[in-house]
Design goal:
alpha+beta, six-stranded antiparallel β-sheet, four-stranded antiparallel β-sheet, 20 strands, 47% helix, elongated
């Protein structure tokens, strides 16, 4: 350790790493990930500081302890339920990493901060911080430490179409320059410094450190300015590592906004044991329909998604919602109302009953798609939203659906479109199951095939397809194995309906939830659901239910009249989900656990899908920081010194040590060969002490000389409080003549505290080597190396602090 330089570099490396992590902000929604990343970076920093003091700078031990502590912090933060089962914790973390990687491969930024994503970011930030700390602090190669920082910066630069905003480039560059500056300062300080006269000190200031620092700042600022300015004037550099303003498409200055493409993939959350309450709503409907978030009307053979088109800003929900497409007055409807309160759902699309006529109570700009009635926010989401929706409860009859005329050609063309590479077995199965008859009869046969007749089984742990659970390959596997969850059922029935010429799409949202009071329900993460909607002229889009989920019956209009007369299960169009246990003993009453960006086609995400265990983490960091803090170490050493000073000679030595260490914090040091009187003369010459301050210094010098040379006396001497007051008076006199930067460094990062921490390693080593035979009187006070002590023999000379 070199006068605290390792600690300075460790703190600077952590700051540079955390600043570099800020460049990931455009990739992830919210700030939860930043807190987790900060915890990882601080863990690396604090562990490195403590480890270097205990291991006396031996870098393999330091790195090993840092790596182990970082892993433990990750386990506590992300897999604390598996602390007693290390293999289980590793498996859980591996599953989270795979889930996070799946999100990065399938969704465009910004993504929701669900657990896998937060683990990727926080773990990556911790590893970058570890690499930077090793290179900058252990190996003293700050320039090479810029490589891991650059690697972190390149991640968002490569993923964002328009590159990173220029101000984030400045932030990252500032962190790297701070790292270089800290190392350069340490190298200059290593040349040495001797207490000089006032004139010499002034000359050194004007031509030494300050000049070098000014030159370094000028070079750094010039380099950053050129990096920012060149892309704007050099062709071909306008969309590379340094991007534009970060506004993106659909900013407030345009006339339209472009919707995101949510991904329909709930699998990762279906088996999550956490069931979080997402929203509460009260409704005038006794048996409400599912609450819809978004409708996916485009299928590319891999997944369903909303159509990629712009929504005019004139389609503001404050102007009212349009009529439901295809719905005519011949269908029975009643006007109903729902009041919705969002708890922990953060979603770009607005959860609404279908078809909604009017929405009130929302802040921000919300726009509707007139063809799907999807409602999407323009730079606003559903976080903590409370709103009222007025909607129609539509009750078509099976006769109306069976007698529906042919839909318009444009509807048929759009909603029966499929890729050319759908396997033939899918269409063959569809035609075999549906048979002949009206489109309604074919649709009912498809539903019954999946729901009850085909031997299908609901299981959230169904085999997974590499192309996604809604892909054509997944459909083929699903038809063969007959095991799946709502995405399999909804996607397969919608594709088969399209192959039969029936317009179809997939809706994503939530089941009605659990009843709290007569008209109030709670929707939790396990109520997430997907279902197919088929179009019938005169009625519009109609929900079908192919998923054989316990407690959830098909809608009444999907049961032909002759069956309805004999059925007692079709009275309710929807019911609250009831528990169901699959063959593996897992409860499948809930179809989705924590909705996230790959769940529901809207990418629904609860805001606490990742929750930080603040209490233990904060407590641990506070303890570690307190133990590693030079300020705390200096205070503890000072208390110990005064507590052990029980005689006048010991009090004099303690006061002189306090003076020596207090001045060293301000950068004032003297040679070990100087006598107390020589030190007094230099301080008076260089800092022009006032008469009161000079008298205080005289008292301290005289008392120290008496302690060393005067015959033993029974006189009690001055109390410790008066001696401390003299020390504070002199240190304060010197401090006011120092720069504010020096004074703040003395308060927050005193050199005496660094020396105290450095002495702990040898002290612990000596304790372990010598065992219990060590006498308490021989305990090493961390701050007494080279300090003044009352003599044990008459020949001891007056000594002062080490230079």
């Amino acid at each position: 350790m070199r006068d605290g330089s390792d600690e300075r570099m460790a703190v600077t490396a952590a700051a540079a790493s955390l600043v570099a992590a800020l460049t990931l902000a455009p990739l992830i929604k919210g700030t939860t990930w930043l807190f987790a990343a900060a915890i990882m970076v601080l863990t690396v920093m604090v562990t490195g500081i403590v480890a270097r003091q205990l291991a006396r700078g031996w870098w393999p031990a330091v790195v090993g302890l840092q790596a182990i502590t970082l892993f433990l912090a990750i386990v506590v933060l992300f897999a604390r339920g598996e602390l007693v089962d290390p293999p289980g914790a590793v498996r859980l973390l591996s599953d989270m990493l795979q889930a996070g990687m799946q999100v990065t491969q399938s969704q465009s930024p910004p993504v929701d901060a669900e657990r896998g994503i937060v683990l990727l970011v926080a773990g990556g930030a911790g590893l970058v911080a570890l690499a930077v700390d090793i290179l900058a602090t252990s190996f003293r190669q700050p320039a090479l430490a810029g490589l891991p920082l650059l690697a972190m910066y390149c991640v968002p630069a490569a993923l964002l179409d328009d590159g990173l905003p220029w101000y984030l480039f400045l932030v990252a560059a500032a962190g790297f320059l701070l790292l270089l500056s800290a190392d350069a300062g340490d190298r200059v300080r290593s040349w040495g410094r001797v207490l000089a006269s006032a004139g010499q000190r002034s000359a050194a200031r004007s031509g030494g450190d300050t000049g070098l620092a000014r030159g370094g700042r000028r070079v750094g600022l010039a380099a950053v300015a050129m990096a920012v300015a060149l892309p704007a004037v050099v062709p071909g550099l306008d969309n590379q590592l340094l991007g534009g303003s970060g506004d993106g498409d659909g900013g407030s200055g345009g006339t339209v906004i472009t919707r995101i493409n949510p991904i329909l993939d709930m699998r990762r959350d279906l088996n999550d044991p956490v069931d979080t309450q997402l929203l509460q709503y009260s409704t005038t409907v006794l048996n409400p329909e599912p609450l819809r978030i978004v409708t996916d009307d485009q299928y590319d053979g891999r997944t369903w998604r909303p159509s990629n088109k712009d929504i005019p800003r004139a389609n503001n929900i404050n102007n009212g919602m349009p009529d439901a497409p295809g719905l005519t007055s011949g269908v029975a409807t009643t006007e109903e109302e729902s009041r919705i309160r969002i708890f922990r759902l953060r979603e770009t699309y607005l959860p609404l009953p279908y078809p909604t006529r009017q929405v009130s109570g929302l802040d921000g700009e919300w726009l509707f798609d007139k063809e799907t009635l999807n409602v999407i926010g323009n730079e606003v989401d559903t976080t903590q939203a409370e709103y009222t929706a007025k909607f129609l409860s539509v009750s078509p009859t099976s006769e109306q659906l069976a007698g529906a005329p042919e839909p318009p050609k444009d509807i048929v063309d759009r909603y029966t479109d499929l890729p050319d590479d759908i396997p033939q077995v899918v269409e063959d199965t569809a035609r075999e199951v549906a048979g002949n008859g009206t489109q309604y009869e074919q649709a009912v046969r498809l539903q019954d095939y999946f729901f009850r007749d085909g031997g299908f089984r609901y299981d959230t742990r169904a085999p997974q397809s590499e192309d996604g659970d809604g892909s054509a390959s997944a459909i083929v596997d699903f038809l063969d194995q007959k095991v799946g969850y709502c995405v399999h059922y909804a996607s397969t029935m919608a594709v088969m309906a399209r192959q039969l010429g029936i317009p179809a799409r997939v809706a994503v949202g939530f089941l009605p939830g659990s009843v709290q009071t007569e008209n109030t329900r709670i929707i939790s993460s396990r109520d997430a659901h997907a279902w197919p909607e088929l179009y019938f002229e005169g009625v519009g889009w109609v929900r079908f239910e192919p998923t054989p989920r316990s407690g959830q019956a098909p809608p009444s209009w999907t049961i032909p009249q002759e069956e309805d007369d004999d059925s007692t299960t079709s009275e309710d169009t929807s019911t609250t989900t009831a528990p169901e246990t699959d063959d593996e003993g897992a409860s499948s009453s809930s179809e989705a656990a924590v909705p996230d960006e790959q769940e529901v086609a809207a990418g629904a995400q609860q805001s606490d899908g990742f929750s930080v265990p603040w209490q233990p983490i904060v407590a641990l960091l506070v303890v570690l920081l307190a133990l590693a803090s030079p300020r705390a170490a200096s205070s503890l050493a000072t208390r110990k010194r005064w507590r052990r000073a029980g005689t006048p000679p010991a009090l004099a030595a303690a006061a002189w040590d306090d003076l020596r260490l207090g001045l060293s914090d301000l950068g004032v040091r003297w040679a070990a060969s100087w006598t107390p009187r020589a030190v007094r003369q230099r301080l008076n010459d260089d800092y022009q002490l006032s008469p009161e301050q000079a008298e205080a210094l005289d008292r301290l010098v005289e008392e120290l000389e008496d302690a060393f040379y005067a015959p033993p006396s029974d006189a009690p001497g001055r109390p410790a409080a008066e001696r401390k007051k003299d020390v504070a008076l002199i240190v304060g006199a010197v401090a006011v003549q120092k720069s504010s930067q020096t004074r703040w460094r003395a308060r927050l990062w005193p050199a005496s505290g660094v020396s105290a921490l450095a002495a702990l390693g040898p002290w612990f080593t000596s304790r372990f080597q010598r065992g219990s035979s060590v006498d308490d009187s021989d305990d090493l006070d961390p701050d007494t190396d080279g300090a003044a002590r009352p003599p044990r023999a008459p020949q001891q000379k007056a000594g002062s602090g080490a230079r």
